[in-house]
Amino acid sequence: MSKQPKPDSKKYTDLISEIEKGHIKIPKFQRNFIWSIDKTAKLLDSILKGYPIGTFILWETNERLNDIKNIGNLNLPPVPDDIKVQYVLDGQQRITSLYAAYLGAQIQKEGEKKITDYSGIYVDLEEDIYSNDQQIVVSEKPNQVYISLNEVLNFNDNLLTIKERYSDQDFKKIHEYSQAFSTYDFSTIVLRKEDIDSAIEVFTRINTGGQTLTLFEIMSAKTYDEGQNFDMEDKYQKLLKELSAIKYDTISSSVILSSLALVLSKNKECKRKVILQLDKQRIIDAWNNLISALKESIDFFRSVYRIPVSAILPYDSLLIPYVYFFYINKERPQGEQIKYLEEFFWRIALSYRYSSATESKLAQDVKRIDEIISGKRPIYDDFKVYLTSPKDLIETSFSAGSSYCKAILCLLAYEEPKDFQDNGKVILDNSWLKAANSKNYHHFFPRAYLKKHNIGNANSLVNITLVSADINKRKIKAKAPSVYISEFKDINDGLLPTLKSHLIKGISEFGIGSDDYSIFLRERATLMYKKLSDRIDLKHRVSSKEQGIKELILTGESDKLEFKSTLRYDLREGQLNKKLESVVAKTISAFLNADGGILIIGVDDDGNILGLDKDLSTLSKQNLDGFELYLKQVIKKFLGGNFEKHLKITFPTVEEKEICLINISKFGKPVFLNFEGRDSFYVRNGNSSIPLNREEQSNYEKLHWN
Fold this sequence. Notes:
By secondary structure, this protein is α+β, with helices and mostly antiparallel strands. The protein is built from 27 helices and 25 strands. It has a five-stranded mixed β-sheet. It has a four-stranded mixed β-sheet with strand order 15-18-22-19, with helices on one face. A three-stranded antiparallel β-sheet has the order 10-9-11.
C-alpha cells in the first residue's frame, strides 16, 4: 500500500520565490484566474489574522506539462531543465492571488476589458486586528489611516519610506503585520507519483464540485512536449482558425481524439479508456498525417457532397470514419468506393446512428470503411434507416438541432440553392444556422400565412428552404407563395431554374399558383424521397421494376393514383362483399373521364402492400388469370362498352406479394357508371373520384373533350 502524503508548509516568501524561479507552475488545464480583488483581499485578511486558508496540493514531477505562461500581463518564467517542477492541482486561485498581491500587479483577466490593479488593496491601521467582525485588509481605501498591502508584504524594501510617513505606533503595527504575513505557514501536500494519470485523477476528484477535466484537456496535458514543440491544445486552436475560413470551425475536439484512437489502437476502438492509453510519441508522430486526413475529409464533404458549412452536418462524428478512410487509404476515393461512401454517409445520417453509444458504433463502422477501402459494399442489417415513404418527410417537424433534419439540409445544400431575386448563390453561415428561426431557414409557405388560413403542419421539414440571410424579412414576410413568387417572377426571368435548385420543379405542378399546401408537400416530399432513395441505394435488394412500383406507391394517392385494398373482399367484415366492385369501377370511370391514371388493387390507403390473396379466395378460378377475367367482367357490368385499348392490366410482385396494377388512359367521350339502375358521371378531384350533376357534367365535357 502506498504511503499517504504528509502535509508540509511553505512561507509566503518561499512561495513567491519558487513561482519566480519557475519551480511552481499552473498547468494549462486549470481554469482561468477569476477571483475578484475583493476576494483576494479577504484571503489576505484571513492570513493576517492567522486563520487557515486550506491546503495547496502540488504534483512534483520531471514531466513537462503545458503550463500557463502568463497571468494577465505577468510573464512567468520557464521551468529550469535540471529541477522537478511542482504543478498546482488545487489552490490555483489562492496562489495566483498571493502572487498578484505581493507584486501589486495590474492584471487584465481573460475575457475582460478592464485591468484590475492589485496594488489597490489596503490595510486599515485603525481597525482592531483581533475583531472578527472587522476586515482589516480591504479592496477600497479606508477613510482613516491605512497603508497599501503591497508595501506591507514588501516591508524591508519600503522600510525607510514607511518610517517617514507613519507614527512610531503605526510603524510598529505595520512591522507586526509584515511579520504575520512572512511567518504564516501555508499548508501544502506534495504528490510525488511520477505518472500523470495519478495527478489527473487527484485533480479530477478534488474538483468534483467545480471544474472537471475534459478528455481533450487530459490528453493535451499528457502529450505536451516542449522539446518537440507539440502542444495539442495550441494546434487544435490553430486548426479551428484555418477551418473557420472554410466555415468548418464547429468541429469538436472529440473528432480528433476518436480519429487518433481508431487509427492507432490495436483493436480500432475509440472509447475513453482506449484514448487515455494511447502512446504519447505515437500521437505526436501521427498528428500531421491525421490532420491532413481530416482536411481531406472536409474537402470531400464540401466538394463531393456539397456541404458548405459544418453546422448542417448531421453529426460532426460523421467525419471520423472518413478521416480513418483518408488516413489509411492515402488516396481520393475511386470507382465503387465513391458510391459506397455516399451510401454510408446517408445511411448514417438518416438512422440517428450517432445519437447514442457513438464510440462503439464508430468501432463497428470503421470495419465497414475497411470493406469500402477494399472495394466491397458493406452490409447494414444492424440498423434502420428512417425513410420508408415521402410521408415520413412530411410528418417530420423541422428542428435545427435534429440530425435527421440536418441530413435533409445537406440534401438541399447539395442542389446549391439560388436566391429567388437575383439567382445568386445562397450564402450559408454557421452562426446563422444554430436555431430554427435563423436567417437562412425559410418556410416556403410562411407560417404566418398558414396560421392565418388555419392550415396545420406549418413546420413540416418539407416546407423548409434555404435562402439568403434577409430575404424573409425584406421580401417574403407573410405573403402567400403565389403572391411573392409572382413578384419574383416579374423581376427574375430565371426564376424557374432557381426554384429547381430548391427541389421545387414548377409553379403549378407544386401547387404554388393555387397556394395548395398539400400538393406542395406531396410533390416536394416525393422528389426529396426519390433523391434520398437513390443515395442510400434501396435498389440493391429488389429489381428495378419492383423498385419503380414501390416508389410509385410511396408517393401516395393523388389525382393520378389511387389504391384499393381489395376488389370484392370486405376486410372489416372478413367476407365477400360484391358492393365493393362498384367502387373499383367508379375509380376506373373517373380516370377514363379525366386524363388517365393508375389504380392499384391490393394496396391500402397508407401504401401497405396487402396482395390479392383475399380476393383470389372468393373466385372460382383462384389465380391471376381468373382475377383478370373477373375484373374485366366487373368493368363491363358497371361501365358497359369496350375499354380494352384504354386499360392495361398487369400483376407485379412487390414484397413477395402479387398486386393488380391498372394503367388507365383518357377515353374519347364521357363514361358513365351504372349502379342499381342509375347512371353517374365521375371525374377526379385530387385523390378522390367525385360525381358531377348534369350542369357540371355539361361544362366539364365542353372543356375536356372540345
